[in-house]
Amino acid sequence: MTNNDLTFTTLGSGVMGCAIMGGIMASLIELRSGKEIPQDDTPSHLPGKFIACDMRKEAETQVQNALGHYKLPLTTLTNENLRGTKEADIILLACKPWAFKDVLGAEGMKEALAGKLLISILAGVTAEQIEEFLYDNDASAQYKCHIVKVMPNTASMVRESTTVIAARNPPLPETQLTLATWIFSRIGRVAHLPASVMDAATALVGSGPAFVAVMLEAMADGAVAMGIPRAEAQMMAAQTMRGTAALVLNGEHPAILKDKVCTPGGCTIGGIMAMEEAGVRGGVSRAIREATMVSSKLGQGVAGSNVNGTWR
Ligand SMILES: NC(=O)C1=CN([C@@H]2O[C@H](COP(=O)(O)OP(=O)(O)OC[C@H]3O[C@@H](n4cnc5c(N)ncnc54)[C@H](OP(=O)(O)O)[C@@H]3O)[C@@H](O)[C@H]2O)C=CC1
Ligand SMILES: O=C(O)[C@@H]1CCC=N1
């Protein structure tokens, strides 16, 4: 038996705040309709009420436009992070990475967070950084919140995210970890990894949709150049990526998959040779390494600073 008596608040309701709330809402609707059946690991208390906080008034309209159609209890607040946090059981920190001290350092915030689950999706900011900022490394601080760093991606909106949950030492209480895992497994696949690889995880799964979109667009452009109409080319490129991903998730090794497509003397190996000449492999893997390094600097930035290219 589950109760939808928890309130889920986002501090920052932009692209990701909306995507994650949207994914959770879609999942709750499926649970209610019986399309999804509660599993053994379904927590007894689930979110049922949502509060979207932002500092921009326009965010209220954007949130309502994106999520209003789910018809679940949803409140939008502008410049009322404290109220949203006081009313919350679970708080999603989804502002810009360099804004976290402004958000969490506000008067009364520490008290409002006490005992609650604080999920941070901020690139480049560790759970330890947040803990140190809030409690100044005071291990005996009363009524701490439980902080977990996770890295989802924008496909949360369509429940196809890949989310990495960072391990904590000491670990999160079991109930809180189960709840965080449940939330993100409703909106895609979840991996648990050491905190030390979270910047690489940010590059791979957080930034990944942008990298894949560039490749998708390039494939579609090539097809348009060769006469296929744009809409069809885009759909065909996307479905080809989905099919390839499904084969790999089904256990096929990417190198074997590639070899199977390359008929000897055929057109695919011709195309692969062109990709190798252009250094596509090196360029793509370099993008992951570059994004990892930039991510590692994002939590140290201040608003308006640009850490791209500053780490060398
Ligand atoms: N976009 C993505 O695909 C992913 C992003 N992330 C992480 O998620 C976080 C959010 O990213 P994203 O959704 O893209 O960013 P957005 O800019 O779309 O959303 C962040 C929102 O938070 C608002 N905000 C800033 N300061 C405050 C504040 N003090 N109180 C309340 N709201 C505030 C911003 O307002 P304003 O615009 O005025 O600053 C903005 O509306 C980032 O930390 C990013 O690293 C993680 C994974 C993937
Ligand atoms: O580009 C960024 O900084 C964020 C983090 C991962 C995806 N978008």
Automatic annotation (TrEMBL):
Catalytic class of the enzyme: oxidoreductase
Under Pfam families, the record lists: F420_oxidored (PF03807), P5CR_dimer (PF14748)
Q: Which GO terms describe its molecular function?
A: pyrroline-5-carboxylate reductase activity
**InterPro entries for the chain:** 6-PGluconate_DH-like_C_sf, NAD(P)-bd_dom_sf, P5C_Rdtase_cat_N, P5CR-like_CS, P5CR_dimer, Pyrroline-COOH_reductase
Q: Which reaction does it catalyse?
A: L-proline + NADP(+) = (S)-1-pyrroline-5-carboxylate + NADPH + 2 H(+)
Keywords annotated in UniProt: Amino-acid biosynthesis, Membrane, NADP, Oxidoreductase, Proline biosynthesis, Transmembrane, Transmembrane helix
Domain (Pyrroline-5-carboxylate reductase dimerisation): give its ranges.
197-297
A Gene Ontology annotation in the biological process aspect, one of them, is: L-proline biosynthetic process
Q: Where are the transmembrane segments?
A: 6-29
Its domain of life?
Eukaryota
Pathway recorded for this protein: Amino-acid biosynthesis; L-proline biosynthesis; L-proline from L-glutamate 5-semialdehyde: step 1/1
User: Domain named Pyrroline-5-carboxylate reductase catalytic N-terminal: which ranges?
Assistant: 11-124
Enzyme Commission (EC) number: 1.5.1.2
Where, by residue number, does NADPH bind?
Answer: N81
Residues recorded as binding NADP(+), renumbered to this chain, are: L11, G12, S13, G14, V15, M16, A94, C95, K96, P97
Q: Which HAMAP family match?
A: P5C_reductase (MF_01925)
Family membership: Belongs to the pyrroline-5-carboxylate reductase family.
Q: What is this protein called?
A: Pyrroline-5-carboxylate reductase
Organism equals Pseudovirgaria hyperparasitica
